[in-house]
Amino acid sequence: MAKEKIILTGDRPTGRLHIGHYVGSLRRRVELQNSGLYSKTFVFIADAQALTDNMDNPEKVRQNVIEVALDYLAAGLDPTKSTIFIQSQIPELCELSFYYMDLVTVSRLQRNPTVKTEIQMRNFEASIPVGFFTYPISQAADITAFKATTVPVGEDQEPMIEQAREIVRRFNYIYGETLVEPEILLPDNSACLRLPGTDGKAKMSKSLGNCIYLSDSADEVAKKIRSMYTDPDHLRVQDPGKLEGNTVFTYLDAFCRPEHFGRYLPEYPDLNELKAHYQRGGLGDVKVKKFLTAIMEEELSPIRNRRKEFEKDIPAIYDMLKKGCEAARETAAATLDEVRKAMKINYFDDAELIAEQAKRFKGEE
Ligand code: ATP
Ligand code: MG
Predict the structure, then answer these.
(1) CA 122 – ligand 1 centroid, Å
(2) 3-state class (DSSP) for residue 184
(3) CA 109 to chain CA mean position, Å
(4) Spacing of C-alpha 148 from chain mean position
(5) Pairing state between β 83-86 and 6-11
(6) Which residues sit opposite 84 in a β-bridge?
(7) pTM, 2 dp
(8) Most CB atoms within 10 A, among 140, 156, 331, 341?
(9) pLDDT tens sequence across 31-86
(10) Which of 8, 11, 121, 122 maximizes ligand 1 atoms within 8 Å of its Cβ, making it the mutation to test the pocket?
């Protein structure tokens, strides 16, 4: 029998979702959800993970759970096709993490480049919370609990998926074939692997405050694009401009489609010509930024409008999440049963074990 294909991904409720999430993962999830190629799609709000570096600010996490849920629905995730749930409501995930901790060494965790960068970003060098340090293990639990085969995420998640694969291999080697090894699904477009922030920093990230949010108003988006980082040496229109590290062009790589030229910039046939002109000199930042603003508006306005609709009935969204949690919990519990059985810690379900032990203590007759 061909293996069932199952999708799983999540986001930390540390803020509203931004266009980095959108191009890195969310847009793809919606496509996959609608593709008919996957038997199940699980999408979750990683509140327990968000608490690992926001333990002193639970209110922030609590407030953002609903924001992320609204962004999901606005972007096109459909609860009739995808199971949307909240991580902390699935206690089975904690138990799985606890067992997986035995399969990972401290030095292996210390080598995780994403965690290393995040520790620096948060000034955790001197005192790393254990929960934060071990979150790649808990992520492996999230993925494997649902037997996910496919994890559509941005490039920063590569080390996490690798860690999960190692845990699966080690678990299956020791305890027998039980868990499914997940595969990462990165965006095809290289600009979307790790979308930079509006300040030109390597990654758009809620924690860095350099984001364009899916729910920003048209004015906010336009303002953020106007002050966006370009080429600091491109001072006059006639100066030649650089594309490398030029955020406006990276965003065009991520969002621009051929038909946008006809609609908003008919004097250029395509993005290559626009880039060539910029590099030659004679093309001002303002013009390129206006083009990008029009494209972003086309992409974001339907999302923003759908969000406004969903905002009208917040209790219905909590209800949807609750149902998602119940469904997710059933799946996670079934996997946990298999894990306990494989690890031989299912004492009371195992009549054979009890009989065997009874016999042993009676002595062979
Ligand atoms: P935080 O700063 O709280 O970690 P974040 O902005 O990094 O927040 P996450 O919730 O950690 O967001 O990431 C959720 C998903 O979005 C992951 O799949 C991640 O790879 C993807 N993602 C986040 N930021 C970007 C980005 N700038 N470009 C591409 N993908 C991204
Ligand atoms: Mg992150």
Answers:
(1) 15
(2) strand
(3) 20
(4) 14
(5) unpaired
(6) 43
(7) 0.94
(8) 140
(9) 999 999 999 999 999 999 999 999 999 999 999 999 999 999 999 999 999 999 99
(10) 11
Residue 205 CA to residue 197 CA, distance in Å, equals 7
Answer whether 142 contacts ligand 1 (Cβ < 6 A): no
Model confidence over 185-244: pLDDT tens digits? 999 999 999 999 999 988 898 878 899 999 999 999 999 999 999 999 998 999 999 999
Question: Residue holding tokens 């953020």?
Answer: 224
Name the token pair of 244. 């490398």
**Phi/psi at 193 (5° precision):** -60, -40
Q: How confident is the model at residue 311 (pLDDT cuts 50, 70, 90)?
A: very high
The 3 state secondary structure assigned to 44-97 is EECHHHHHCCCCCCHHHHHHHHHHHHHHHHHHCCCCCCCEEEEHHHCCHHHHHH
Is the minimum distance from the CB of 203 to ligand 1 under 6 angstroms?
yes
Centre of ligand 2 to C-alpha 58, Å, is 17
Query: Six-digit token pair at 98?
Result: 């606890």
Position 58, amino acid = P
Rounded Cα–Cα distance for residues 208 and 310 (Å): 28
55, 205, 253: residue to mutate for ligand 1 pocket, most atoms within 8 A of CB? 205
Query: Ligand 1, from 21, 43, 115, 190: best to mutate by most atoms within 8 Å of Cβ?
Result: 21
- CB of 87 shorter than 6 A to ligand 1: no
Which tens digits make up the pLDDT trace of 100-117?
Answer: 999 999 999 999 999 999
Of ligand 1's atoms, which has the minimum distance to the CA of residue 204?
27
